[in-house]
Design goal:
By secondary structure, this protein is an alpha/beta fold. The protein contains 9 helices and 12 strands. 34% of the residues lie in helices and 13% in strands.
Length: 289
């Protein structure tokens, strides 16, 4: 246990150092239906699409579809004097985050969730006008306490990629908070047990890092967990079959090229930097996608 946990602590120093949570009281979030059913938002008469029933398209079909902007957030808190320049990329000040959300709403963006994106990539299922996906990594408490209420103002939904080793620890989300997000219509995805590099997995690592955490999240939410984000955005093709046989439908990387043979397991995201004001975020989304 200690050998595995030490790298998590090192990663947490970079991605979560100094995050705070003055209150762990539940935030009131509205309920919605299970995200495994995707409704076509352009025609009310279209039947819901269940992703388990979708036949995977060939790689060329998926790669030819226009990509949707996918934003990756980590910490939502104000900078401290002790934060390094590199760390500030991952730490978005509260007012900056609020400006990001307002810009998205004012610009006419509509949030989508992974099942909708999956249906679109495979079937060409229509998406709402100006779609965007909001994602959060690493289970930091202010993603629940600050980000979720701010998104609720605009009717936005997001994907929370949860690292289960941190559940219930100081400054991280509790199981009840994760359940609350799921019940409010956000999607809970997997981000491993303790943020180990997927490229280094061997043998039982797949059980420790993927299988057990997935079962934990499914027990918390009562829903299947079918979407995955690679720690540090690092991936290799050897991971794809391991994820597939454990029920995953997609894997999310960062801003690099997708795998030409299996783009569903290399869906691109960009880190929403703490240095970016709303205008620069908008420009980066346009350039990257």
């Amino acid at each position: 246990m200690n050998r595995i946990f030490r790298p998590f602590v090192a990663a947490a120093i970079v991605l979560s150092a100094g995050c705070f949570s003055k209150s762990q009281t539940p935030v009131q979030l509205s309920n919605t239906s299970d995200s495994t059913v995707v409704e076509n938002q352009t025609t009310k008469d279209t039947k819901p699409v269940r992703i388990d029933d979708i036949k995977t398209a060939d790689a060329k079909t998926i790669l030819d579809r226009k990509q949707v902007p996918v934003l990756c957030y980590h910490q939502i808190r104000d900078w401290k004097p002790t934060d390094s320049k590199a760390a500030k990329d991952y730490i978005v000040p509260v007012e900056t985050f609020k400006a990001h959300m307002k810009m998205l709403a004012d610009s006419g963006y509509n949030t989508i969730l992974p099942d909708e994106y999956y249906a679109y990539l495979n079937l060409g299922t229509p998406l709402p006008e100006k779609p965007v996906m909001l994602t959060f990594d690493d289970t930091e408490a202010n993603q629940y306490l600050i980000a979720a209420p701010e998104m609720k103002k605009y009717g936005f939904k997001a994907v929370y990629f949860i690292m289960t080793v941190s559940l219930g620890r100081p400054k991280y989300m509790t199981k009840d908070q994760v359940k609350g997000l799921s019940e409010a219509g956000h999607v809970i995805g997997s981000h491993t047990w303790d943020h180990q590099n997927v490229k280094k997995y061997k043998g039982d690592d797949w059980v420790t890092q993927i299988e057990k955490p997935t079962k934990t999240l499914e027990a918390i939410t009562g829903k299947k967990v079918t979407h995955f984000a690679y720690p540090f955005g690092l991936w290799n093709p050897e991971a794809f079959p391991e994820l597939k046989k454990r029920g995953f439908k997609s894997g999310y990387i960062l801003a690099e090229k997708r795998d030409p043979s299996d783009p569903l397991f290399t869906i691109r995201r960009i880190i929403a930097s703490g240095y970016w004001d709303a205008k620069r975020l908008n420009n980066s989304m346009t350039r990257s996608f």
